[in-house]
Amino acid sequence: MPLKANDPSLSSWLAVPENSDFPIQNIPFGVFLTRDDVITIGTRIGDHAIDLGALHQLGYFSEIPLTDDIFLQDTLNDFISDGKKTWRLVRNRISQLFEKNNQELQKNKDHQKIVLFTMDEIEMQLPVQIGDYTDFYSSKEHATNVGKMFRDPENALLPNWLHLPVGYHGRSSTIIPSGTPVRRPHGQTLPKGAENPVFGPSRLVDFELEMAFITTDANALGEPISVDEAEEYIFGMVLFNDWSARDLQKWEYVPLGPFLAKNFASSISPWIVTLDALEPFRVASPKQDPEPLPYLKQKGSKSFDIHLAVDIKTEDGSVTTVCNTNFKYMYWTMSQQLAHHTINGCKINSGDMMGSGTISGPTPDSYGSMLELSWQGTKEITLKNGTTRKFIGDNDTVIMKGHCAKNGVRIGFGEVSTKILPAVNLNKK
Ligand code: MN
Q1: Fold match between 4-124 and 133-421?
Q2: Which end of the chain has the smaller Cβ count within 10 Å, N or C?
Q3: 135 alpha carbon to ligand 1 midpoint, in Å?
Q4: Interval between CA 22 and ligand 1 midpoint (Å)
Q5: Residue 225 CA: distances (Å) to CA of 66, 235, 338, 401
């Protein structure tokens, strides 16, 4: 089935501001609360949110085999379960309906009043109920930087790293949408030179610039997904800030890996940009040496050219960009991650989320965490208002953005923006 919605020559009868992440070629999927306090599934063109539940009830999807309530739900899980053919039919139909020469909805002002919202009239929710969340560690630059800092500069990568996409199982209950503030976590840390740990608020709260992909039902228990088929089971991607408390992490992570340093919060951008929309921005991933084992060997270009940036916004409103990088630097691709994840027969469900791991590029201004940008706190980052940071301060807001651009079309993810609030007072009760 052709990806008609990706045609760069299309434009919409809805206004799309210049440099918008959401032209008619994007058509992402999300869940929002409307001005009437109704939760619905929707999409976005320019600065308009479109209620797909209402569009479906009004008969605009009558040519597509969909259940009546598919968009009248709190999450996208059932729609994602319908599979790639349905996602593509729906995206193509939305594209057709909002294309500038199409009159069906354009001439029906009554229907427009029901289905169209401005972004300030709605509140974005988590787009999926995330059953399981896995976080990988797939940026060679990031893994090398961390290895240099914490282990041995000469042997920064552990022996397994070049042979498999390293990952761990995270916790889905604390994945939150953009705009939800996060409290600085408490925990145990081991002060430098001390023999015993102390308890208190983390002093080293950090962001991790990542992207995450969301899967559909992919396999039966025991059945692997091949690296060649993996993309068939990926619905789309979001920006992902995997909040990390570095001091807690350092003390707790041996031998089973991250725990409380990571599960206090992870933030995602609310619109899922489909893999179909990203198709024009496909690029090759870095050459892999040594060659991976046959089950991880991929054909063709399996990465995407996605510009990524991180801003720190301070309480006075001043905004400083601290990182510019690109998703294309990732050593292990999403296809390899999903193939590896299931090679033992692990079952993947609709709405599962897989984080890429911190995305660092080759230059110091392209590192995807404060841990690397401040080189473990040995360097200060000067912000535009003259203050400095080694990690993230109370009342700082971290804003991550991402977009692709080619042939005059810009497809973006919007942003994931999260404010860090002071730790709760545990003595007050
Ligand atoms: Mn992470």
Answers
A1: no
A2: C
A3: 6
A4: 27
A5: 26, 15, 7, 31
Active-site residue list: 142
User: Under a CB-based contact definition with an 8 Å cutoff, are residues 214 and 238 in contact?
Assistant: yes
Fold classification of 4-124 is SH3 type barrels. (2.30.30)
Which tens digits make up the pLDDT trace of 154-169?
A: 999 999 999 999 999 9
- Gap from CA of 63 to ligand 1 centroid (Å): 42
Q: Quick check: helix, strand or coil at residue 154? A: helix
The CATH class that applies to domain 133-421 reads: alpha beta
CB 251 within 8 Å of CB 190: yes
pLDDT of 427 above 70? yes
Sketch the domain layout of the chain as residue ranges: 4-124, 133-421
Q: How many angstroms separate the CA atoms of 337 and 355, rounded? A: 10
CA of 17 to the centre of ligand 1 (A): 33
Supply angle C-alpha 233, 236, 242, rounded to 5: 110
Going from the Cα of 241 to the center of ligand 1, the distance in angstroms, rounded, reads 8
Nearest to 245 by CA among 381, 391, 375: 391
